[in-house]
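Recall that a protein's primary structure is simply its ordered list of amino acids. Everything else, from secondary elements to tertiary packing, is in principle encoded there. The following example makes that idea concrete.
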Amino acid sequence: MTSGASHDFFATTRWTMVLKAGSESAGIADRDVQAALEELCRIYWFPLYAYARRRNYAKADAEDLTQGFFAQLLQRKDFSRLQAERGRFRAFLLASLKHYLANEYDRAHRLKRGGTIMPLSLDYEGAAAKFEVADKTASPDEIFDREWALALLEYVLERLRHEWMERGQTELFEALKIFLTVEKSTANYDAVATQLGVSEGSLRVAAHRLRKRYRELLKDEISQTLAEPGMVDEELRTLLGVFG
């Protein structure tokens, strides 16, 4: 997957497309539905792995369970628990994983890595290192929500970087991205403007446009995980709330 590519080729949101395919398959190509579901899983798989690790599953077992869970989900497309989760892919995935862990550990343990065809390429070695620096005080559910929010923000940042790269402004983006996270009152526009050889005023305008576009992409990406677009602001508040 290349940054920015996945959000353009669907007229509807990825999750909505997957859900519609379950009851209205006519008019939606199976390959597009599969691609949409795989893309969602590829972006948000680490929170599930982290959840399993925080539930005290060993590294190898968490890898087997994550792989087995996704292999089953991508094959069966079982959305029976969706209604209780109000159409939110985040809540659906966690509820489905809990069910899977409770009922299918033995089966998952037999599906050793390489024992089943897995359409997703998952960086388990990188995941292990990433989990080691995760919040050690968080509960399994809390670490899932936090890592989900981090995965979302990281993916949105990649989408934004891709847009600037296509305009030939990668260097400017790398210099400006700090203004996405620092408080406006502490932002050192003068130093960055001097570094880039531009006026402070033009830099402030560029930073403002960057923040505005980031917010737009953030809401768009959240909408990709919801069945109802009207829930975007609610989901945004929930996700940002995990950072206190």
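The chain has one domain: 14-241. DSSP finds eleven helices and no strands in the chain.
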